[in-house]
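Deliverable D5.2: sample structural annotation.
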Amino acid sequence: MLKSFAVRNFQSFHEQVQISLELNKHTPDDNRAFQTSSGSKLTKALAVIGPNASGKTTLIKSLAFLDWFIRQSFQSKVDALIPLNSHFSASNEASEFEIEFEMDGKDWRYRLIASEKRVYSEHLYCKLTRAYSYVFTREWNPCAKNYEIKQNQFGFLQKEAERVRENASLLSTAAQYQVPLALTICSMQVFTNLHVMGRHHIDDWQIFGASALYSKNDHLRLAMTKLLRGWDLGLSDIRIERQTVTHPNGEKEDIYIPFGIHKVDSIEHSIMLKQESSGTQAAYLLLSRLLPVLTYGGIAVIDELEAGLHPHILVPILDLFFSPETNPHNAQIIFTCHSIEVLSLLHKAQVVLVEKDGNCQSNAWRLDEVKGIRADDNLYAKYMGGSYGAIPQI
């Protein structure tokens, strides 16, 4: 369960920005939030809005990067660069990241300082009493050209830990050696439509990947089909066929091809999903990223949640997270959005505004940090009127 995240000197963000998902006592007690076992009140949804090119995608991409780095960076090639770009005014400085999360009833904090060439600092802390204590610290020694690593009941053999690569996280490395805590953290569910260059766009391989997920998890396929039927897309069912293809090098691979089923006068008509509307394809792909975290718990980090969809579909999508029936494990969703109508669906503490200044530096702040906002304000009308900033100057 994510409690906060911070980023500095990452692409358009030069100065540090910290975003909290923790809510105060003044926020409504409804299904849009939940209470953790440690007593924290966290939001289930966080919307990031602002003008085009303001840095919205970059802000949430920091989470997608951390998810990849923490869990999967060990799989990179030995000499691969870390996919990091600093702000152009500080290109010689490293980027900094921090997240706070709750796991197994305890608060954790992870900090990372890195450039595309190497990790300079990596720390994991756990809050056992009132203060955080380190689980491990990793610091680059420029003179010795190696890492100084300290552990406090992390459980990673020191000689193996000190061999960690410059382009990999200590957590993902420790997970390869079956360190229990590293395995637990690396198993946390984060689903996103972002990669190092930005948002994944709909293509055949994205659809095939989603179809493979549905085919191997029939309960997810049934849930997806039920939702698509209810969203007035003209579908009565989705069926998935497995086919074997042979690549030019002779290797064979199974791919999963989805078909939309339309029933007219009791007669079924089958159409390949790639021939359906872009909105149907977008909804099919989006649900492949939302349903797993709703089913098992975790975080969905989605850029342009409404892309290709009618704005009215935002309501049932967010309701999936707000309803205890469809979100029994209190999964969270963090998303960017251009449909400003979302302001009428969320509390002011569940909205982050992003704006870029004349020096091409992005800044972000939670809407409830703006002075003078009343609980009964019409957030949509005030935002459209420019009262909160983060609106295009056209």
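Annotation notes: The mean pLDDT is 90. The first strand starts at residue 2 and ends at 8.
The annotation will be released with the project's public dataset once the embargo ends.
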